[in-house]
Amino acid sequence: MKELIAISTVFTILTALLVFGVLIFVHELGHYLTARLFHVRIKEFALGMGPKLFSHTSKKTDIAYSLRLLPFGGFVSMYGEDEESDDPNSLEKKPAWQRLIILAAGSFMNLLLGFVLVFLLVVLTPNLGSTEVREFVDASTSVDYGLQVGDTVTKVNGKSVHIADQLAYEIMFAGNQPVDLTVVRKGETLVLCDVVFPTASESGMSMGLVDFRVGLVDKTPLTVIKFTFYRSVAYVELIWRSLVYLVTGQIGFESVSGPVGVTSAIGTAAQSGLADLGFLCSIIALNLGIFNLLPLPALDGGRIVFILLEMIRGKPIKQDTEGMIHFIGLALLMLLMVVVTFKDIFTLFS
After folding, report:
1. Which parts of the chain fold into alpha helices (H)?
2. In degrees to the nearest 10, what's the CA dihedral of 181, 182, 186, 188?
3. Is 322 a catalytic residue?
């Protein structure tokens, strides 16, 4: 038994390291490629944080390529990024629009990876769900609010839904509140008002549950593209709403996970199957892309804000001022990471 637990733990850690490694590499690759495109002089391209485990300096470009001890992070260090530089190819000497692209490229690459993973999931999914009602879990349900077999749901509370994932998420986020459904029935558009779905509670939040099964869609190149797009949109909205609900207190702090919690989730998903792991990786990739674009100090989004202010003002913010703000932001983020990590560890052993 102990041997099986040890093997499972090693498998979880190795899988998580692979996932984190790929996500970090893709993110930093975005910064690296755009920096090279605009001829920005680079000091180091590193995967991981902390002490160096391995480093090689290119004789041609003088760029150090490093692997560092802590696997949760990475960076592309550029001349003129956090300090003044006389080098004409330093980051600070480049036009604002080029710096904007370089900073946004990391998140763009994560979002692109997320979309690619969603595409692969759609391709590998045997059945694609529509928004057409095929049958009810409880045959008497349709009497309650008029929804009938054969109805195609097109909107939930006025928001368009195109695939089963979007339909499920909109009903889920409605919680225990009644919703208005717009449906197409035999070519006629109807609005069913104040529909109440069954609910479940998780992390202190009520979630609406779909109480009917949907029809299936034939898989063609066109439907694969359609489902990839709308499923990606649904995942992005899921992440964004979760962030909003967290800030507004609708989701409790216990729902927040750091590296330890994410590692545990990756291990569970990997043992459940490739589809579950792929779903989780796509969510993490999209989440990383969105989170890094938030206008918070020390994140790419925070740095982008300073560039936008520079473009509006016609001159940059003093580098010392910007550097201090990012330093404080980084310290607060690290503090939050420590708190979340201890929470994750406590959860694992409780």
Report:
1. 2-37, 96-124, 141-145, 164-174, 221-247, 259-272, 274-292, 300-313, 319-349
2. 140
3. no
Report pLDDT for 184.
94
For residue 238, the tally of other CB atoms under 10 A from its CB is: 18
Residues 6+ apart with CB under 8 A from 10: none
pLDDT in tens, 140-189: 554 556 788 899 999 999 999 999 999 999 998 888 888 999 999 988 99
Distances (CA, A) of 205 to 31, 172, 199: 37, 10, 10
Residue 101's identity, in one-letter code, is: I
- State pTM to two decimals: 0.83
Cα gap 299→74, rounded to integer Å: 13
- Token pair 């490739």 in the structure block, residue: 274
Catalytic pick among 28, 81, 132, 322: 28
Structure tokens at 133: 């009602």
| CA-based nearest residue to 94, from 40, 45, 34 | 40
